[in-house]
Amino acid sequence: MPVDPHETALQEIALHRSGEPFVMLNLLRFAPDGRASYEEYSRRAAAFLRQYGGEVLYAGDGDTPLVAAQGQAWDAVLLVRYPSREAFSRMVADPGYREITSLRSHALDEAVLQPTTPWTRRAG
């Protein structure tokens, strides 16, 4: 299962609404003994998040799903806010950040990284 974004997807994200803040949904399934590696990745990634204006809004363990297809339970869920897609793209292109991504890759068996766009209130 894929755990790292494809280079084409990274290029695309910078082009889509690049000036607006967004929240990245992270769904994580750890490899056996992968949690420690992910915790080390998170500790090191925190400096890059701060540098590029990112902020972890929520991080927690998955629990028993109420509605999900078989095999869709996740070990952890994170919501990370970025000031823009361009800022996210600069962060993941940073050579220092790229040096630590192997910690994340080795920690996970499966992942979903889903950029989200906020709903706006509609006059009614």
TrEMBL record:
InterPro entries tied to this protein: Dimeric_a/b-barrel, DUF1330
SUPFAM superfamilies: Dimeric alpha+beta barrel (SSF54909)
All residue ranges annotated as the DUF1330 domain in the record: 35-110
Name of the molecule in the record: DUF1330 domain-containing protein
Native species: Streptomyces parvulus
